[in-house]
Amino acid sequence: MERKSWRLERRISVSVLVQLLTLAGLIVGSWVNLQRQLDIVSHDVKQLLVTQEKFCDKLDTVQEKTIAHEYRLQTIEQKK
Fold first, then answer.
1. Could you read off the pLDDT of 11-25 as tens digits, one per residue?
2. Got the DSSP string for the chain?
3. Positive or negative CA dihedral for 45, 47, 51, 54?
């Protein structure tokens, strides 16, 4: 009986090494790009929250003024 065994050659060709380095470079580049995009999105979300808070404050002011004007109108109508 002949026994066939698999042998792994430990030689790495230059092209395989270049491909691995290119793949590693692409992975690192993609990760850096994603981090940059996440920073941009985070900044935009912070800006949006600040703007929303200002808008809510203005809306509260308008609502308070509206209620005050309604009371004034009611008192004027009651006096007539």
1. 668 888 889 999 999
2. -PPP---------HHHHHHHHHHHHHHHHHHHHHHHHHHHHHHHHHHHHHHHHHHHHHHHHHHHHHHHHHHHHHHHHHH-
3. positive
- Residue 9 is classified by DSSP as -
Q: What is the DSSP letter of 12?
A: -
Residue carrying structure tokens 């230059």: 14
Q: What is the pLDDT of residues 22-74, one digit of tens each?
A: 999 999 999 999 999 999 999 999 999 999 999 999 999 999 999 999 999 99
| Closest to 31 (Cα-Cα) out of 23, 51, 49 | 23
Give the tokens for residue 27.
């992975």
Residue 1 has pLDDT above 60, yes or no: no
